[in-house]
Amino acid sequence: MKNLLFTLLLGAAAAPAALAQARAGGNLSSKDYTGGAVTETRNTGFGIKGGYNLSNVYGSGKDLLNPDALNAFHGGVYGQFGLSQFSSVQVELLYSRKGYITHFPAFGQRTTHLDYLELPVLYVGNLTNNLSFHIGPQVALLTNARLGDQNIAISEGGFNTLDFGGVAGLEARIGPARLGVRYDLGLGNVYKDGVTVRYDGNKVVDITNTNIHNQTFQVYLGLGFTQ
Question: Which of 173, 176, 165 is nearest to 136 (CA)?
Fold first, then answer.
């Protein structure tokens, strides 16, 4: 999965030049956020977005946690900066809840909530007037952690504050509205070395393998505005 995402990111870096060669004259365009009014490049504006997260962890250490997927949410703002009629750069600032659910015979079901402030920087390429693909890197800052019903200090839970990774997805535009799906792949370790996971003061498991990373499938709605 990491190799696939790296290949896609390299492809995204070369996409503007490839599209320009394939679409000389800029035949491919996308309508701006009003559904009719356009800017000079037809790919410039800003807006709000939010939606559903299906979050879990992956990696060789995840079996220590016996994880199941967590239903959560995300929301925030974005700005899009046109490069041409068929390509642009989109920068977002999102609040995103991630995490997982554990099932241990001695402790029952417990939920780990991890709230991140995320900054994706994405290349956007228009496949048609109303359909585009998004791909690029992302950095994230862990702002809050909750184990079961209890908020805990990030350091107490043994979590890494900084995460990084990549994002890829598709988006459709209908007038000023946007509907998109996206896969968010974390590459940073969720836990620090030598962490003991505890719930309600009870030891659950020692993290002896920190190869544990976030992964999130997202569906979102957005509303855009012209600059």
Answer: 165
